[in-house]
Fold this protein.
Amino acid sequence: MAKRLTSLAARFAKLELGVTLLCALSARAQELPRRAPDLDRLTQELFAEIQSDQVPYEDLYETLLQYYQTPVNLNTASREELRALLLLSETQITSLLKHREATGLLLSLYELQAVPGWDLRAIYRVLPFVTVQTADANRARGPLWQRIKNEENNALFLRYERVLQQRKGYSAVDTFQGRPTLRYLGSPDKLLVRYRVSHAHDFSLGFAAEKDAGEPLAWQPGRGRFGADYWSAHFFLQERGRWKALALGDYQLQFGQGLLLSSGLAVGKGAETITTLRRSSVGVRPYSALLENTFFRGAAATYQLTPRWEATAFASHKNIDANLQQAADSLAQFDEFGTSLLYTGFHRTATELTNRHNLAETVGGGNLGYLSADGNLALGGTAVATHYGTPLLRRNEP
């Protein structure tokens, strides 16, 4: 009798193991595989005409790549976070939020087929950049230092560029009308190193250093030069109770429709007209790009006052490029003043190095925002104050 019970127990154990494996394989089969995005096609569709020549294509690719590495959770994403994807229309965003409110959290990405207005084209286009999670995985990942240490989403970029043909800017100095022509003081090598470790809705930590072609490598701490011409670093935290965002170092701000603060990515004319008309009010975001003038440097924080109200405060101080002149008239209002701000980010010639970081810029302000319970009404007010260390006197023109 004992041997028979033992045999039956063994059979039931094998049956239970088989059922468990079958359920696991069945559950895995229901997971929609993530495909690598076609960044070239998306860029051509959404960013057909860039509004500014100073926005390179690499930043557009990097924005989409960042969403691919840290996909947006459709179960917790707000309207502004869905807008920031730049891949969904207002109708599709509203339909998803209403579906989520009526049926609860999404169980699988396959459920997107049941959302009104989400056709297969829209679903396949957004799939590489979104995910569905029903629980907050950050709570079970330990303290912050441990999460940073064990994070798998690490990105290290190393880049070297050089034009093989010798350009005129690197040739020997000659004279033109009795004056020596301008020549680049550095080598024609372009160097870049950038590292970032981040986790969606948790933290972001990184730095970047860049030397443009023609810029010299110099170690002059007294002049703010530490080897590479451009350095950037940031530390960013999210979702700490009522503290929705905390940024230290370099960061971006984007509120409302960008009349005062909109240092984030803006698209141009493309196949999606709605993305050209509106901007995403995403608030505080970390900065890890290479544009040397589209960011703030200091600290910013967003605090949830009530379920419907949140407040943001920020302060920034950095030195920017400007053309400074001495007053020719002893009766002038200022002995020294700036005539223009320079945004190229190049410091290759003696003149460009003279204009490098010689104007102190201090910016402070805040934003107070309201969002209705259904998400259809958003109100906000923004205040910004800017102070320059040297008076800025532009020409009298419209």
